[in-house]
Amino acid sequence: MRELHGAGVALVTPFHSDGSIDFESLAKLIEHQIAGGMDYLVSLGTTGEVATLNKEEKYAVWEFTAKQVAGRVPLVAGIGGNNTAEVVAAIASFDVSGYCAILSVSPYYSKPTQEGIYQHYKAIAEASKLPIILYNVPSRTGSSISPATTIRLAEDFSNIVATKEASGSFAQFSEIMRDKPADFLLISGDDPITLPMMALGAVGLISVVANAYPKQIADVVHTCAAGDYAGARATHSSLLEITDLCFVDANPCGVKYILQEMNIGTDHVRLPLVPARDVTKEAIRRSMSALV
């Protein structure tokens, strides 16, 4: 799965003021990513506000994205949730044209046991025509995929090929790297800790901040991939403030405001999210000026 090495981006879903999907801005965003050097794109990860989209909207975004990309970079589809049967049905019926893998977030709210998490992904793996990337983000799901469960899934299912780790636990990352099959990939799911994760052995990042700053994120990831961690530090450090501001008022409100300032989209989000506060917007503008 060389397609999953390097800098990936979890695309936001642009909306018009009436809440409908803004496909013109989505096209601009995709071109911004490709021009900025992103190695692959993730369509409708959780950053894409996928929980607020209906089935028809999801398929429209996946189809539009595949047509816009037109094979220029690899594409990953985000298909996950806490209703296993529904996720399995969505994956089984997914049109894989133009896509190389599926990113599936661990079940949220239900707080399943490790055996429940294992059985959830087992059902997904058995239904999928594409390789699966696990997504562990306990701050949002309410439970964590343990290293032992990650390794068990990697060993039992050849089409479970990677994990996007956003647990923030370096003990967890270290256990995964120690015990994983040789071809199983660790991917950072957290922008500000990508540099040290890659030093540990992660193969790259699926980024939020790259929606706005693909060139800078690609530079950090590619420089780390070349083993030059000292060379990556300056760009890594320059992005810390803007990264924090992207998450102050919930993701993706901050990065959508940055994109609006860049004339790539708008800051419209769907309830229960609301746009970033004015105080956050002011701080973002100051931070953007410092990055120019």
From TrEMBL:
InterPro entries: Aldolase_TIM, DapA, DapA-like. Pathway: Amino-acid biosynthesis; L-lysine biosynthesis via DAP pathway; (S)-tetrahydrodipicolinate from L-aspartate: step 3/4. GO terms for molecular function: 4-hydroxy-tetrahydrodipicolinate synthase activity. The active site is at Y135, K164. Signal peptide: none annotated. Keywords: Amino-acid biosynthesis, Cytoplasm, Diaminopimelate biosynthesis, Lyase, Lysine biosynthesis, Schiff base. The record marks T46, Y109 as: Part of a proton relay during catalysis. Pyruvate binds at T47, I206. It is an enzyme of class 4 (lyase). Its EC number is 4.3.3.7. Its main location: cytoplasm. It catalyses: L-aspartate 4-semialdehyde + pyruvate = (2S,4S)-4-hydroxy-2,3,4,5-tetrahydrodipicolinate + H2O + H(+). It comes from the Bacteria. It is found in: Cytoplasm. Belongs to the DapA family. Homotetramer; dimer of dimers. PANTHER family: 4-HYDROXY-2-OXOGLUTARATE ALDOLASE, MITOCHONDRIAL (PTHR12128:SF66), DIHYDRODIPICOLINATE SYNTHASE (PTHR12128). This is 4-hydroxy-tetrahydrodipicolinate synthase. It comes from Sphingobacterium corticibacter.
